[in-house]
Amino acid sequence: MHRYIALLFLAIVSLSACSLANRNTPESAWGIIITFGHSEQSAAPQIWPHADGVTAYWIGADETGVHHDAVQIVDGTPSKTTVLPLPPVHPYNQMMLPAARGRAHILWLDADTSRRENRLFSGILRADTQPERGPVLNSNMRTARYTALPNRDGSVTIIWSGGAIAEPSLYLQGIDPMGRPQLPRTELINNADWPTIARTNDGVVYLAWQQVSSGATFIAELVGEQLENIQQVPPLPNRQRGDRITDFRLALDHTHRYLFWNITHADNQSETWMATSALNAQRWQRPVRVGIRELLGIPFETGFNSGMTNVATTGDRWASHAMPLSGQFETLPVAAKFDEATLGVMYFRRGSVQGFQAIVNDSPLLSSPSFAVDRDRHLYLAWSSPTLDGTANLNVTMTRRLS
Questions:
Q1: What share of the chain is helix, strand, coil (3-state, %, to 5)?
Q2: Could you tell me whether strands 317-324 and 291-299 are parallel, antiparallel, or unpaired per DSSP bridges?
Q3: Phi, psi torsion values for 121, nearest 5 degrees
């Protein structure tokens, strides 16, 4: 009898411990939050969902210096951090895109070792974080910014801005499925910066940019190596001295094109603005500040494996640090910061916000998150959040259920 009582006591203690552990595991609206690394920079880690899990890539630093880091997360468990053998100077603006044979392209900007001017570099990474190529030098002159579009064969189309600081140009270049640069580079247009690119499901490629001399925004179709049907977008209203663009993105749903500007003011307050146009229209709506009003208890069907989502309309719960999902779907998900510490996803359709989902309510963002989708339409969010010791936690959450 005493033996059975003892076994029952142990079972109760074990269940209580499991329950406590579950309560102590941070969770989002989608599932557990996995903190897989730390960084001394504010940028969100880049993420790449694949058949075996998700691989994350970021810039780390310790007593040995700055380095490229990566982990693979399988069933919610991160691997040991791999320090990639990619000699850095001051790398930033990383990106991950699918390559051939189940690999990923990684891209970043860094100073070259000879002239100390920023260049665009790339490499190939396996899902298990082992590098197969890199660093590969792609741009041949000072490089300010870039945008990239994955192709079905595993190659990548790149547009980068560079050249003279006062009047940079946009250059078109490719990377083949094995990670080798494709030459020659083609100059598309001068007096241009902040390129951003998107492609419809039927193959129409749009490229948007900012004109340096005037600050005006333009968008065109990229046909081969030519820009066609160039349109000017109405300007952002009420720009003040000290306002700066921190990010500029082009996105799509089945009927509309969207442009998102992340703006930071001189007082360090941040906002997101948006302009829209029907896919075949010749005119754009004037940019408006992005804000939502959530209608609690009224469900909205997103078309993704995103769980419970409420209907939302335009409102004054303001968004900042927005990051739209790449690709073209009936609904466009856009992750953003709300209030002081809420990471949420807005769902746009036919040119306006239709749904909203609060994903994390107590995790301040240091920058725009990374946002990805897999073949089964599960969504993945990664972000950096501040810690008391002045570094950043690197986090990811996803709608895919873990084993």
A1: 5, 55, 35
A2: antiparallel
A3: -115, 160
**Strands 270-278 and 392-398, sheet pairing:** unpaired
d(CA 260, CA 18): 44
Amino acid at 81: T
- H-run or E-run covering 329: strand 328-329
Percent of the chain clearing pLDDT 90 (strictly above): 83
Cβ count within 10 A of residue 286: 12
Whether omega for the bond prior to residue 369 falls within 30 degrees of 0, making it cis, is: no
Spatial distance between the Cα atoms of 124 and 105, rounded to a whole number of angstroms: 5
What is residue 403's predicted lDDT score, i.e. its pLDDT? Answer: 63
Positions in the chain whose pLDDT score sits under 50: 1-23
Q: In this predicted structure, what is the pLDDT of residue 401?
A: 86
**DSSP states along 148-211:** EEE-TTS-EEEEEEES-SSS-EEEEEEE-TTSPEEEEEEEEEESEEEEEEEE-TTS-EEEEEEE
Are residues 168 and 155 in contact, defined by beta-carbon separation less than 8 angstroms? no
DSSP-derived secondary structure letter, 378:
B
Q: What is residue 2's predicted lDDT score, i.e. its pLDDT?
A: 44
* 61: its two tokens: 């630093």
CA distances from 368 to 42, 145, 217, 382 (A): 9, 16, 21, 9
Please report, to the nearest 10 degrees, the dihedral formed by the alpha carbons of residues 168, 172, 174, 180 taken in order.
Answer: -40
DSSP state of 22: H
Instruction: Please name which of 275, 329, 289 lies closest in space to residue 306, comparing C-alpha atoms.
Output: 329
For the stretch 257-285, what's the b/e string if a residue is b when 16 or more beta carbons lie within 10 angstroms of its beta carbon? bbbbbbbbeeeeebbbbbbbbeeeeeebb
Distance CA 108, CA 146 (A): 9
Alpha-carbon span 58 to 138, nearest angstrom: 20
User: What confidence tens digit (pLDDT) does each residue in 281-339 have?
Assistant: 999 999 999 999 999 999 999 999 998 899 999 999 999 999 999 999 999 999 999 99
Q: Are 309 and 347 in contact (CB under 8 A)?
A: yes
Distance of CA 64 to the CA centre of its chain: 28
Q: What is the model's pLDDT at position 11? A: 40
How many whole angstroms separate alpha carbon 382 and alpha carbon 172?
29
Amino acid, res. 17: A
Strands 34-39 and 392-398: antiparallel
